[in-house]
Amino acid sequence: MARKFNFYAGPSTLPLPVLEELQAELVDYKGMGLSLVETSHRSKEYDEVHNGAISKVKSLLGLPDNYKVMFIQGGATMQFSMIPMNLLGPGKTSNFINSGAWAKKAIADAKIYGDVEVLYDGKDTNYTTLPDPSSVKTTPSAEYLHITSNETIGGIQWKSFPKTEAPLIADMSSDIMSRPLPVEDFGMIYAGAQKNLGPSGVTLVIMRDDLIAKANQNLGAYLKYATHADSDSLYNTPPVFSIYALGKVLTWIESQGGLAGIEKKNREKAQVVYNAIEAAGGFYKSPVDSAVRSDMNIVFTLADSQLDKEFLAGTAELGMLGLKGHRSVGGFRASLYNAMPLEGAKALAQYMADFAKKHG
Ligand SMILES: *Cc1c(COP(=O)(O)O)cnc(C)c1O
Predict the structure, then answer these.
(1) How far lies 278's CA from each of 3, 126, 258, 290, in Å?
(2) Mutate which of 152, 177, 196 to test ligand 1's pocket (most atoms within 8 Å of Cβ)?
(3) DSSP states of 13-81 as a string?
(4) How far apart are CA 132 and CA 136, in angstroms?
(5) Ligand 1: which residue has its CA nearest to atom 13?
(6) How many CB atoms lie within 10 A of CB 20?
(7) What is the role of this chain (predicted)?
(8) Cβ of 294 less than 6 Å from ligand 1
C-alpha cells in the first residue's frame, strides 16, 4: 500500500493507526457480531465510546469542571449561527476580530441575530496579520468576543490570546488539539472535526456553564446548547461513526505526548517548510506576517507564477496531494495538521529546494 502525503486543508489526513483500527473493527466490533455503526446509540458499547471521547477531550485540554463538552452536527458553519441565536438577540452586541475568510462568515451570520462591532479588521493588510492580543479590549456591552484561532485559508494563527472582559469565543476548527491552550481564558471553543480530530460530521463544542445557563431558551431543542449539555450530547442520534473515530484520534494524540508533544512536532514540521521558503532566496514568497504565520496551513507563492502548473504537477508525481492554494488566495498551501508526519514536511521541503535550483 502506498499512502500519499496528504496536504489537503480539510477533510484531511488522519493517523494511519486510527484508520487501521477502524478497518479492523468495522465489520465485527469487539465480538458483538456487528459494527458499532449498526448498533443503538443507547447500547453499552456505544456509551463507552461516546463518554470515553468526552473524557479524553477533558483530560487532553485539562478542562476545569465548569465546562461542558458537546458533540453537535452541522459543522463549524452551524456554530456561526447557533452562537448568536443563543447569546445575541435584538439590541445585544457582539465583538469580532475580522481576521479573514472564516471570521467573515461568522460575522455575516451574527449580524442576522444582533449587533456586531468589529474591533480589528485585517482588510487593510489583506488579512496577513493579527492584532497584538494585549491591545484587544472588548466594549462594555459586548456579550462576547469572537476570534478565529487559525485562519485556514489565509494562513495566520494567534500565538497567544487576548484576555478579555467579555467571554472569549474561538473558532478553532483548524488548530484544535495542535498545542496546549489556556482554556480558562475562553468562554467557548468550537471546531469542526475534519481537520485535526477525525472525519467530518461532528463539531466539538466546549462551553462554560454560565454561558450555557444565560443562553436564549426560546429556541428549538437541537439549537439550544443546554439540550446538548444536559443530555451529554445524546438528546438525539449522534454522528456515531465520527465520534467513534474522533475518540481514536484523541487516543493517538495521547500517544504522541499529548498536546505538548504534538505542539513540538507541529512546530518542527512547520519550521521545515518555512525554512524551505526562506532558503530559496526569493524564489518562494510567504504573504503573511512571520510573527503570526500558521503552523497548520502554510501559504506560499512562487515569485514567477508562470511556474505554478509545473510546480504542482511535480508534487503529484512524488505522491504529494492537496497543495493547490485556496481559489481566493492562489499560490500554494501546505496543511500540516497533527497527523501529517515529519517525513511529509521534509519531502515537500526537498522538492521545493530541488525545484528552485532547477528554475532559479
Ligand atoms: C473548515 C473551517 C470551517 C468550516 O467548517 P465546517 O465544519 O465545514 O462547517 C470554519 N472555520 C474554520 C477556521 C475552518 O477551518
Answers:
(1) 29, 21, 30, 11
(2) 152
(3) ---HHHHHHHHHHHSSGGGSSS-GGGS-TTSHHHHHHHHHHHHHHHHHHT--TTEEEEEESSHHHHHHH
(4) 7
(5) 173
(6) 11
(7) Catalyzes the reversible conversion of 3-phosphohydroxypyruvate to phosphoserine and of 3-hydroxy-2-oxo-4-phosphonooxybutanoate to phosphohydroxythreonine.
(8) no
Task: Give the pLDDT confidence of 44-72 residue by residue, as tens digits.
Answer: 999 999 999 999 999 999 999 999 999 99
Secondary structure of residue 128 in the 3-state scheme: coil
Is this structure's pTM higher than 0.90?
Answer: yes
* Identity of the amino acid at 185: D
Rounded to a whole number of angstroms, the CA Rg of the chain reads 21
Q: Give 183: exposed, middle or buried? Use CB within 10 Å, 0-12, 13-18, 19+.
A: middle
CATH match of 258-359 with 3.40.50.11600: no
Residue ranges, CATH 3.40.640.10, the chain: 16-255
Euclidean distance between CA atoms 78 and 277, whole angstroms: 36
Q: Is the CB of 297 under 6 A from ligand 1?
A: no
Residue pLDDT, tens place only, 184-203: 999 999 999 999 999 999 99
Q: Which three cell numbers stand for residue 203?
A: 463539531
Instruction: Please work out whether the CB of residue 175 comes within 6 Å of at least one atom of ligand 1.
Output: no
Which protein residue has the closest C-alpha to ligand 1 atom 2?
173
Pocket test for ligand 1, best of 82, 147, 171 (most atoms within 8 A of CB): 171
Q: From CA 227, how far away is CA 207, in angstroms rounded?
A: 13
Q: In Å, how far from its chain's centre is CA 180?
A: 14
Identity at 273, one-letter amino acid code = V
